[in-house]
């Protein structure tokens, strides 16, 4: 059903191949008519007025005028690469997903990003990094749209516009570009204390990665896997970099932002070109799919929670190698459209309320960003599996659909009846029981603890990592104009740890408040520290 000029693997064919590669023997206009000159407008004499009839001039300038599309509303700055995912088969007992069977190789496209800066912003700012992977599986596309931080700022997608409004540059002066050092961001995260955990990760070394090749990745939400017998398991997805986890120190990040704002982008592309192909191991933490969807007292539907690896080890299930740079940034890195709802049989979502909002948001934004609903036909987004849908027409439709009856069943085009109920390899939503309840606008009680997990993170840090966190909070809060925000920031820190609060307060020259909640009695999780972090299969 795709455009005739593109092969099933997304490659242009025939005359279009020459045009897209700009390798034809002569230049043509968009209609294929040969041109003899593209440097001079058509004029009434060499010094006379330009003639309105010059179609080549108008076509060339019109197209240029419309070259830009809107940047992503978040994660605008990104860099991407192609690669291969090879499955170990170790997840086959918990999922029927074909690409996770033993030794299956699946082409992938991975886009890394910062969250808040615009498309032209610098790479080594303090921010969360996106880690989005498109698996072109034999059963359709599976997208894992994750971050390099395993928790999120908010627990309910209805607050996403709010947290992003707070994090983007101030509406009056449009500064600052990065997440760092501005009042609205700190106003939000100190008023919405569910953001404490994510913010603490941002203020740690994780907020300024050394390289995109040395970042972990996390699916963040809990997902539900389904095996061939219909049994379900709750999981969290992890990417672990073969090179280990490494960060910059703040001073390095500052200098690099000035000297080479493309530092991460350049590093990724250069490494791939030089044959130093970055690798990650893909892993899952598994939890029994119990009716309460908790594990060791941790609510698995709360995206501000991790499950410490000491309680649920990450089990390796496959390997990702990035081995090819995009050949056209716009066609691939800009036009790729990820979506958490792009799932394959054997992988399902849970009722995490943040995930529910994402299922709506990505599709919606891409209609604007990519000019209508036909963006799945853009080569980078095309599945490597046959497509036989009943989606028709609209803007940028490039498929020439055949037949007369885009509905099922029909008696005219003669085919493809649904095999209802049978196991046809179709995607079937897991028939989980929805708890009987009344409609409410409220969070569950189990989402109310905002400080235990941040405290565990703080206690897990080495002395040098703690020093960096103290320095980061002191710098960031110190740059806020409003005294009340600094004070509220200190109150949040007091609820994490008195020493952390005291050190930052001393740096700000303000008194350290006492905690307003009892300090949680939690054990450190050594796996959270970057120091001594090793590749699991070394
Ligand atoms: C884009 C991750 C929460 C809306 C992205 C991207 C990533 C990401 C990696 C960039 C994709 C790319 O490279 O093209 C996450 C994670 C979240 C989260 C890990 C929480 C666990 C949300 C929520 C919403 C949202 C709650 C909205 C309700 C968007 C939008 C884009 C985006 C609109 C731009 C997509 C596009 O233009 O193609 N997100 N996000 N995200 N995200 Fe999220």
From TrEMBL:
Segments of skewed composition (Polar residues): 2-14
UniProt keyword Oxidoreductase present: yes
Domain Catalase core stretches: 28-416
Enzymatic reactions: 2 H2O2 = O2 + 2 H2O
Cofactor(s) annotated in UniProt: heme
Family indicated by similarity: Belongs to the catalase family. HPII subfamily.
Protein name: Catalase
Organism (species): Streptomyces similanensis
